[in-house]
Write a structure and sequence with these properties.
Blueprint lengths: L1 H37 L5 H5 L12 H32 L4 H13 L4 H15 L6 H25 L3 H9 L4 H12 L1 H15 L4 H5 L33 H9 L4 H35 L3
Helix pairs in contact: 1-12, 3-6, 3-9, 3-11, 5-6, 6-9, 7-8, 9-12, 11-12
């Protein structure tokens, strides 16, 4: 019996290592092929040029600016709402059947396919609220997509704080708000920041919901500037402008038969992958930094 268990353990360990090795090698092969194909195409002209019908003149300027604008709206909506919802559910909400139902649905929403959010946004934001196929609609759509991630990570970060800290704060006569403001939120900053960055790094690569709400596959102009020369010197017209993003620009190039456009798509993929890796690296650095600062 003992020998049989040892054999099973050895076989399981061998299969696990083999599967892990094959997965890692496949991933590295795909990344290497993408970099080898796309890296030679990346230059200043590629970064500062608009899309073109000529592959050698095409660039990602409009897609890059569109991605930046959409992610800005996504962050401004999802981060404060998600953190506030997480703090409320964990610290203030009564523990009853209603909050339990809300918590279950939030967890389920984190696993819903992104295309479902796109269909919902098409009916709600585009048609019902008449926001059109705009940057604002795209930002709101992606904020709904990552909102469950921000809420769940916020709650997990708050749960990681030892109960003794709460008892000590209450023993000194502090109120609930003082506990949350001065202890709960500062001590959970690392986990919350990590969840926010991971959520945004997921949103930056989404394509399906944006195509559903009507993102353009070819756009050769930039949104309106948020700064104007006349009072009040700030304009929100850019929120209502049409847009495209890097994943959709890649999709447009990949769908063309010319290999030169495929190289452009690979180059855009290298840039998008680099941004995502930098954001995930930032999440790791933020988490480690706050772990060093906070001692229980």
């Amino acid at each position: 019996m003992w020998l049989k268990a040892k054999i099973y353990n050895f076989l399981f360990l061998t299969l696990s290592i083999a599967g892990f090795t094959i997965s890692i090698l496949t991933l590295f092969a795909l990344i290497a092929d993408l970099v080898v194909t796309g890296a030679p195409r990346i230059d200043f002209s590629f970064l500062t040029s608009f899309p073109s019908r000529n592959a050698d003149q095409a660039g990602i300027l409009s897609a890059s600016v569109g991605t930046l604008c959409v992610m800005l709206v996504t962050a401004l909506v999802a981060v404060p709402v998600g953190i506030a919802a997480g703090v409320y559910l964990e610290e203030y909400a009564p523990k009853n059947w209603l909050t339990t139902l809300i918590e279950i649905n939030i967890s389920n929403l984190a696993g819903v396919p992104s295309i479902v959010f796109g269909l919902m946004a098409l009916g709600l934001f585009v048609y019902k609220l008449s926001l059109g196929q705009s940057i604002l609609t795209a930002g709101l759509t992606l904020s709904l997509l990552i909102l469950p991630i921000v809420i769940v990570t916020t709650r997990e970060a708050i749960r990681a704080i030892p109960t003794g800290i709460r008892h000590a704060v209450y023993a000194l006569g502090a109120t609930k708000w003082q506990l949350v403001r001065d202890h709960i939120i500062p001590y959970s900053k690392g986990g919350i920041s990590t969840g926010v960055i991971i959520g945004l790094s997921r949103a930056i690569g989404e394509t399906a919901p944006l195509i559903t709400i009507g993102a353009l596959t070819f756009i050769a102009f930039l949104p309106n500037s948020p700064i104007t020369s006349h009072f009040p010197f700030i304009s929100f017209q850019w929120l209502h402008d049409p847009f495209t993003v890097l994943p959709i620009q890649m999709f447009n190039w990949v769908s063309r038969p010319q290999p030169e456009f495929h190289q452009n798509a690979a180059a855009a993929g290298v840039i998008l992958m680099s941004i995502t890796m930098i954001m995930n690296l930032g999440a790791i650095i933020v988490r480690l930094r706050f772990r060093k600062k906070v001692t229980w």
